[in-house]
Amino acid sequence: MLVDIMAKVTALRNQGKTLKEVLAANLTAPYDKTTLGDTQQSKDRFITEAYDEVRDFPPIVDGKRTMPIRP
Question: If 12 and its partner were Cys, which of 7, 17, 49, 60 is the partner (CB 3.0–4.6 Å)?
Answer without folding.
Answer: 17
